[in-house]
Fold each of these.
Amino acid sequence: MRTISQRQAWTRAAMGAPLVVLLVLFLVYPVGQLLLLSVYGDNGFTLAQYRQLFASSVYLDVLLITLKISLATTLVCVVTGYPIAYLISVVGKERKATLLFWVLLSFWTSFLVRAFAWIVLLGRNGVINKLLLSLGIISSPASLLYNFGSVLVGMVNALLPLAVLTMLSVMENIDRNLPRAAATLGARPGMAFWKIYFPLSLPGVAAAGIMVFVTAIGFFIVPALLGGRRETMITQLIIDQVQQTMNWGFAGAIAVLLLVVVLIVFAAYDRLLGLSTMTGASAPRNAQPSRLSGPVVRTGDALLTLLGAVSDGILRLLPSRRRGRNPDQAGLGLQAFVWTMLLIISAPTILMIPLSFGSGGLNWPPQGFTLHWYETVLNSPLWTQAMLRSLLVGIGTGLLAMLIGTPAAFLLVRSDIRGKAAWLAFILSPIVVPRMIIAVGLFYVFARMGLVGSAVGLVLGHTVVAVPYVVMTMMAVLRNYDTRLDQAAQSLGARPFATLRYVTFPILGAGMMSSFLFAFATSFDELTIALFATGGLNATLPKQFWDEVTLQVSPSIAAVSTCLFVFMGLLIFVAERLRRRAAAR
Amino acid sequence: MVSSSLCIRELSKRYGDFVALAPTSLDVAKGEFLTLLGPSGSGKTTLLSLIAGLADPDEGQILIDDADVTHSPAYARDIGVVFQNYALFPHMTIEDNIAFPLKMRRVSDAEARRRTAEALETVRLPHVAKRYPRELSGGQQQRIALARCIVYRPAIILMDEPLGALDKKLRDQMQLEIKRIHRELGTTIVYVTHDQEEAMTMSDRICLMNAGAIEQLGTPQDLYFRPRSVFVADFLGESNLLSATVRGVDGEQLDIVLAEQLAASRAVGNGSRFAAGEPIKVMVRPQNLVVGEGGQLSGRLTDVMISGSLTRLYIAPETAGLPQLVAAHPTRSGSAPYEIGQRLSLGWHAADAVAIHEGKGS
Ligand SMILES: Nc1ncnc2c1ncn2[C@@H]1O[C@H](COP(=O)(O)OP(=O)(O)OP(=O)(O)O)[C@@H](O)[C@H]1O
Ligand SMILES: [Mg+2]
């Protein structure tokens, strides 16, 4: 072991401390407070809240519904996301960029905008009803909204991009020679896929599954906007408790319930697959021997063989359109499916654009052309102030997250500190803990610190949830950075600061810019924390959007949606450019 | 004994505008050991993947035992491939990797186990059966890739630099092993390597590739002693290449004049036709350049390098227009030491001077 000098130890502490302090003050403490509130009443320790929670079946029913919706969402996302990720991972560079753009655009378009678009699309006078009517499939408008189906559609739309991107990160690392090798060894395409490619992609499927499930379980935007009473999810209960009855203790108890469910899911995942597979990327290359026991593995293997044989049987029945020639040529059916899915997740937001210029309200087809809705928005101080505030808070969050996250990333990559994995898990915990729990905890703490309604509070809260992404991005960038360049600069006479100034930062610049944008976008689109921390006044854009959309569905929201959509589209374009420039280095 | 002949007709492959393989024809006989040799990027892997059915050719035909397989899928060709980067399945044990082709052919479990063990014996790694690929060294993985290929006795085996990652000793051992497998199974083998020495020692014939086309195809002796182009002469072994002009042609014998020298000398053709007055290159291998009295050229010694068994002399000829020459002879102990700057006379036997067309061979 290298001995580290006193000074080095101080430097390290200074690099890591801000992040640790931030997370302790604004994650651990608030969440801890909230959990404590659930067992401490006015007269000390009490389980009254939990008794109430389990007294009737109401809350358990909500939990069951939440689980049902989350499971269904996960299932649909993973099953439909798999072919999309697969296609993206096998096609050539240019087509990959196109496909990826649509996934990213959807990924970055606000959940609110997408959910709102579905309200319009599925409404009585929406596109779908109009289409079904004109095709003569129905004779009067069907009520497509406020049921399980509409919630599922909204949830899948919200989380499919996440599933695709997670699986893609694993699939991109599968050696494309492996299915080819299988082909030369005599495996038909179906067999090569099920016995070779699919097992190697499983870590990605599992990671996508848990990410989607855990996000879905903490969701409230979609069920609130697209669901009826019977699709109430658990986070909505927490909002009700806090906003309507100010019952912190009971909100805390529900939060505990939610947290316990999430932890059980993670524990089960760890038991079955090992949490280390969650970091995805490196998994397929050095696939761990599965933790599953012998019989399970054998059954799985037999199942895969069967699937392979069945697929090959089906393929043989198909007309022999140069079938199976090239193991990595994507079939037409696959392409058609993927484009249909991409269309389904992108279309709602895009259909919003003509509606926002129409004078006939939100009915399909749009009528006339007017800028009225845009004028309404721009003339409303509520909207303009919200916009300004969101920009401000976003930039503040971006800067703070960079300032705190970058040194921590340096520390994690460049020095061998003890318990690195544990530190990393701690830093990533804001992603794992349901956002709602953080938000309510922060609200409680902010209320006592007088930070509710202040921009500072928002920036702090948003930094907590944005900083893990900054650390992850910067760690990835730093890992690819050749430290010999620094040594070269120093050997040429540059002092440490000059090295940073002239060598390190110019090279890392693009990576830093893209992680800044990531943090900015996270804040710009953040609703959960803003829901409480803005305190009814001083709304951010998502909060203002939420307030409006829960009040009434108006065309001016379509105008705002269009603006947000275009803004995010530009942002991705810039970020992607930067990322590529960084990668090209 | 399973073995097939392979016939390639005008096969070509482009990636966008880039021609990875120009229209190429090639015949490989049953049981032949043919090596594709060539610099990096010359299209060796491309040609191999076309043969294996892993890439679609733009034009041309592939025949195996006279049956057209140009459009049949990889799994139906009965061709074994040892991939350049091994392509072992990371989620399967070594045993399962090797048994995979047998399973695909519905060989019974007992039989598969027996043949897997046998293949592991052949590559001398019987103790790694239960391990995963990532638990093996690069060289061991390469040998497993070989085992996975021979275990199902394909009629044609394609190997893409199968020994690239091995150290010298293991490499020599495996070369013998591959030759032995080739002899015993009688399989047709198309072998790719960067290493000219490996190509020379192992092959029945060598196909030297350059920039997506065949530069020369022939036995190792052919390529070494009768190179058809400057590229071949340069690529295979060390050579001295002197500019010359043809004076007269007498069957295989040529009368030539070296560079700006007036004295006539003689050379042999490389099998192609030459015309009087044609500018050519004459190749003399370093070991055929005789240092002593009364040679065709004279020059000054600029450097001496003794590399174990061989002594190399670098000589700047006094005749204008000739490049630096290198002569090699076995190192002799106790002989008079050379002095830098010393004047030497150089010569060669006419039979050791090979005439080559300038530029590309015809
Ligand atoms: N998928 C591809 N897309 C574009 N160009 C390609 C592709 N595959 C190969 N090439 C190009 O075709 C040329 C021939 O490549 P090939 O892999 O056949 O070379 P090689 O002779 O096997 O080289 P090496 O000895 O380095 O393995 C190279 O210039 C390569 O860049
Ligand atoms: Mg190659």
Note: The helical segments of chain B are 44-52, 94-104, 109-122, 138-150, 168-185, 196-202, 220-225, 230-235.
Amino acid sequence: MRLACPFCGLRDEGEFAYEGPVMDWPALDARPAKWVDAVYLRDQPRGETRELWRHHLGCGSLLEVVRNNVTHEVASVGHADPAETRALKVRVR
Amino acid sequence: MQPYSALSVIWNGLTGQRDWSRQWRDREPKSAYDVIVVGGGGHGLATAYYLAKNHGIRRVAVLERGLIGQGNAGRNTTIVRSNYMLPGNREFYEHTLKLWEGLSHDLNYNLMFSQRGHMALHFDPAGRDAFARRYNTLRMTGSDGRWLRRDEVRARAPYLNWSPDARFPIEGAFVQERAGTARHDALVWGLARAADARGVQIVQNCEVTGFIREAGEIVGVETSRGEIRAPKVALCVAGSTGPLAARAGLKKLPLETHKLQAFVTEPLKPIVHTVVSSAQEGLFYLSQSDKGGLVFGGEIDGHPSYAQRGGPRIYSEVMEKAVALMPWISRVRILRQWAGVMDMSMDGAPFISTTRVPGLYFNAGWNYGGFKATPASGWCYAHTIAKDEPHELNAAFSLDRFARGAMLDEEASGPTPRLH
Ligand SMILES: Cc1cc2nc3c(=O)[nH]c(=O)nc-3n(C[C@H](O)[C@H](O)[C@H](O)COP(=O)(O)OP(=O)(O)OC[C@H]3O[C@@H](n4cnc5c(N)ncnc54)[C@H](O)[C@@H]3O)c2cc1C
Ligand SMILES: [Zn+2]
């Protein structure tokens, strides 16, 4: 599997670390039960999933990857934080 | 069931091997049972066997999507050990090792269980101290474990890299002498045969696709071969748990599904006489099968996956570790490589549990280590299903332990399944 880092280009999966699913975290003052669920329980998708990966042996960016976990086809890779994408576009230009 | 004995082997040897009967029967599904076990891996078959043997429940079906033993039961590296440290884990794994010690006789089937010892190598004082704590705990709680100095490890394993410029110079090892390996196919078939003899019906090519509910309770399953009813439905599908449990109403689970690879070399003369493991720069474990192949593996691929195949990053990592420990292995050919889909739990410990859905029971979360657990998993799960409450040996493996702050994180790596 290879991922196209928006900053570094197409790289082998060995340069990236999986950081967990893309999910909404509860508010900091939410009930403890909400936090238990967020930290310990996961949806169980089989097929296309939205995940966070870090390009830890590259630029270090946190990436949002849409990937099929049965076929390993990668539909898209972008920065997890849209502000980062905008900032990089300015710099690259 | 035709009992196996030395006499029957000799008799059939003399009479042209014509009198062996079938070991177990592949049944047509009936419309109803007392208990449906979903999944014909080691755990499902063991559960059915102990339901019949220990609890006298005879109308039990094991529904298997494909053929029994074609999941992780037939894909693992067959290491059996009980060197766990946390209360909850250690009693359970010690119980499984004790069951293994009598299982060939109990099943009247040669499981080729070989207590050849498991050596966990250490490479520095910190590694030694961490292991010393673990193995001292084992000794104080009724299991076995011992420290071997460098020269003692060398005497047992001269094939490891003892050269002064080894990448990871070995300092010593901790050994559990009662640990070892067993024959995975024999476990599956031995359990199937013994369960069948006690009236359990094994139904292959029967995929569970949904659940029948009445008044909020699960009262049966929908399958590729029609509806089958039972007041108790017990999930036992290892790496396929997530999507199936979601259909039963357990949408979110403390699980992630990853894949784990293993490798086997061409057969060699006997050289590796124990199981050897190393946690230096990531996990590596090795044993030699009775056919002579070196069987070894490393870590999971690190990202959620339902593909039963591994990626090249792990091939090279595992080969690097193998060559660092045993440089001569670089000249041995790899015959096969494969992967299995792993039910990785949020704390690295399993689940054998009742659920909040009446009629539904839950067994999963075996990570890398469910082969050794097979007998005790079936034993405890059967108890949980029959009595509607856990045995004290699996009380710690409940599904709701996270909400109570009672996680069992043996590796202390937090709620990050890829690190367990
Ligand atoms: C490469 C590798 C190495 C391993 N090494 C070790 C080791 O050295 N020691 C150790 O202790 N453990 C090891 N394990 C882990 C161990 O193999 C598993 O934890 C254990 O086999 C899981 O239990 P099982 O045998 O019941 O699973 P499985 O054999 O996977 O059984 C699950 C069954 O459920 C069936 N199923 C799935 N969905 C459905 C459905 N909808 N309807 C009907 N049936 C269904 C599947 O076809 C399958 O047969 C290893 C695993 C792998 C992959
Ligand atoms: Zn990058």
Note: The two ends of chain B are 41 Å apart (CA to CA).
